[in-house]
């Protein structure tokens, strides 16, 4: 009954659309019903509807902006007109700190700044010279070339330029054909970046690694999250071979194949690498969530179980106890303020799930959650992958096949142990977001500007977690909003210490006296039937 | 003057793309929506940047073109997008801008939109197409392209009316509100286009409107064709993009082109125009404000006079801010824009003020922040004025930034800034002045103390340089041979041979450009452990080639900020360059002073080339010695660690050495290095007997009573790399550079004659130590 009422409310929102759009959008929204035994399905990773204000970005954003951008020792040249390079200049707040004499290019923006003449006559020559200039100035060990929309159309052969430069200058030059129009969202760009990293970087190093060597995949060090994870994991005794890609380096990535285990934080953006490394090097991956205190503890215990070493397990428990002792009093203070509130989350392809755990730690219930660019497996779990139909758009993104590497392939677990362990911990598996959401909560894929407004009106959450583009809709509606893309210049939010920072930020946001001055009528009155602001 | 340091690579762009500008303009149209025809990333990025600056929801739709659309055309996506936009938002005006993608695939949006308007129910929406390829210009050109398109599409009612068109510049909503208030104070019935005063800075209200209220109304825009005049704030706007020019040519509407009213004179121009158009006198409140602006300028002049400003941004803003700076005595040392504007340079030059300044003003168009940053440092700027993107320069170089323009995403209130009119100008000037004051007083006492009273801190510096302390022998140094010419000629010098086996001062295998030297440094850094010192030791004299020396040091500093720089010189040019040497961060200097007596000097130096004249004999030596001692005293007084090299020449200066040592000690030298003459074949001193090491050490011992002595000198080459005891230059240079073709090992006893062209890069200095070569002059 409860579900029916919510569904009706949703229909009211969607009814405003033209018929075709209504039909389309209906498939992207569901009400979580825990009473139904069979799993619910949602449509995701399909084309964005033109003209409704989507929050999705483009393929280039996923490749250059998300996955490659945080690598601090690579010069990334955006091959295209100036906008794309400019708009990705330091905007994602992925932090990086160089070690001693390394080079750090995170603060720089490099673009070939194509002009009309280049579009007509081709930009390849300019790209060659731009690479040469970058080499002369910085002597980087690695250069990435990322292409933008027009480059794919005018037929510049960026692969040829990369091959030429690599030969000419004796450094690594890798090209990424991540033209903005490819795929349906950032997601295609993640995949393209993953392909390039596995093809050209991972496996090229030969550093010796220690006993508990792991890679952290899908952690971009926004607001310093990665540093907190590194702190905790090192305290326990793990060696972090590479972080993909927050505060990461190409140098570290080249040795990633030496690690014993891949720890996956953001499943959506990096699962391709996790899977390919499993095939190529035999490494297992384990899905973790370091956002939230309880989930951090669970993740640490899961990793320890994988290694199954009594000392490591004891050390894990000791660190957990020590950290908890440190943060619990502070967290308790903020929990009192936050407890009983509700939240709506609309972020990326993982965070809308991860942050539900941290909010739950604070006593905040999530009543709506959605992803911008996730696939069905991020909602429903990897078990649905075989049933996802490949469409034209996903086929346009290359899916590469890798073979076991004769020299570096090794299995850490025996077959028996693997079989046993995979039922106990999320080994090479991600269960998705829906299973962990409360009954009656709403799941929306590719939420747009209009729906954001309407759902806020219907659900009246106390907290809206999203990005800067829709932050101010919430503010206008008198709802506290927290950016979970850039953390509103705060952070870290991950791990133990991060949880306290997040709790403080949420408590601070909820209690600002200014809210008392901004109460929209619908917050106190029932919503009128079919009332939509018209202009 | 090059606009950009790099030709093909735009590094840290000082511009955005055209669609950004058109989106900004369309946000000022009442009840409008804007859609970009292209990949959805364009809309998303632009929304993200605008929301960050304005702190407002920014709805920009996208036709979300994908691979299929790029192959088969985006028509169906565009039409679908328009349909959905109309249904959900019911806008009166829709702007459709193209992107790189749409333009490259050749989308005919005019046709598509005409067709759409004919075939479909658009509600009341007027759809305006506009061509804004991202590669066609910057946001500045995009802004005016959009306004021009709007005017062309909307201004249709040519029936004369009594209104005045006002084409707004791309300034903050706060400034637009201010301009409106001024217009109203003159009683002018205006049509403002675009008007973002409310749309991008909406007050809080309990009713949220999906399309914010405010903006230029379509029915008003129609009347633009019949207005009695147009005011356009756009001296830098080319005629082809000027809405005012279009209205003038198409409808004969008189055009008043003004600069943005920022600064005294530019605001005066605006007031004059308004007075003329309204037939009213300037209201008293503006006369008072004007007086206050002048009063304020006078009050803050002493701080402003110390200002050296770098101004960057869109051409129109840059022009106006430069004007304000000039009027108030803040010296613009670099005026720059990312737009490829042909208008900015003549306009700035025409300002006239710069004749009063004693240095040349730099004006750059189509530039980037990489170039701006370098020039800001070179021009000794102490304040930046522009948008938030300059913060990278602030972080790197410590030059404070006064934020104005778009975007300001790292501070609150960018949308509310008022920098126009007399009052706004004064507000901006106060910000500039206060930033100068804050910056000055933050370090004022410390700087003064350091400069005049701080005791010299030699100890810290000695232990890092292998030639200044044997304790630093593990540290490696690299000599970069970037200084080929010399300005004196010494009798012990012969540079006719370059032999890979020979390791002595002045020997090098090639001369490098600063860029090559920096590249080599980067290469060597990876190969040589503990490479902490970079020296310029000829093969000529570091100061006779000062531009190369300075450039090399600057480039290497960019690669590694922790490097210790040293240079060696004969000292002739020291008084001239001492300040700059200190400024670029050279901490160790070696001066070769073989004599302090002109008569003795006359026997050592054949010729001294100074101030364009060749000197010989005692006169030459006198000039040299005077400059050497003057320079040494000055450097030492400023805390630079100075070593003096003395070549011991039997029968010439050996009995004079103790006197030299005493003199240089008095001038502040930290240590001396007495070295034996190597009688180089072909030099004037080739027959002078060798000084034995016993004689040498006796002399050093004797002088030790006065000053610290160097005992571990290896008299190395001008291209040495490694520790003093392990010169790895032969192998390394070969790996680094094609110019270095030397044999792999110096153990091979092969010498070859160089051609005449190569002679000049060869070797001359016979005497020097690890960081010094310049003691021996060449012709």
Describe the protein in words.
The complex is a heterodimer of chains A (535) and B (779). Chain A has 535 residues and is α/β, with parallel strands linked by helices. Helices cover 44% and strands 13% of the residues of chain A. In chain A, the strands form three sheets. Chain A has a six-stranded mixed beta sheet with strand order 1-12-11-10-13-14, sandwiched between helices. Chain A has a four-stranded parallel beta sheet with strand order 3-2-4-5, with helices on both faces. Mean pLDDT of chain A is 94; it is low at 527-532. With 779 residues, chain B is of the alpha/beta class. Chain B has three domains: 17-137, Rossmann fold, CATH 3.40.50; 300-445, Nitrogenase molybdenum iron protein domain (Rossmann fold, 3-Layer(aba) Sandwich), CATH 3.40.50; 458-759, TIM Barrel. Chain B contains 29 helices and 28 strands. Chain B has a nine-stranded mixed beta sheet. In chain B, strands 12-11-10-13-14 form a five-stranded parallel beta sheet, sandwiched between helices. In chain B, helix 1 (18-26) packs across helix 7, helix 12 runs parallel beside helix 18 and helix 23 runs parallel beside helix 25. Chain B starts with 9 loop residues before the first strand and ends in a 20-residue tail after the last helix. Residues 497-503 and 737-779 of chain B have low confidence and may be disordered. At the A-B interface, helix 3, helix 4, strand 3, helix 5 and helix 6 of A face strand 1, helix 2, strand 3, helix 3 and helix 4 of B. Strand 3 (110-111) of chain A pairs antiparallel with strand 1 (10-11) of chain B.
Summarize the structure.
The complex is a heterodimer of chains A (535) and B (779). Chain A is an alpha/beta fold and 535 residues long. In chain B, a hairpin with a 2-residue loop joins strand 26 and strand 27.
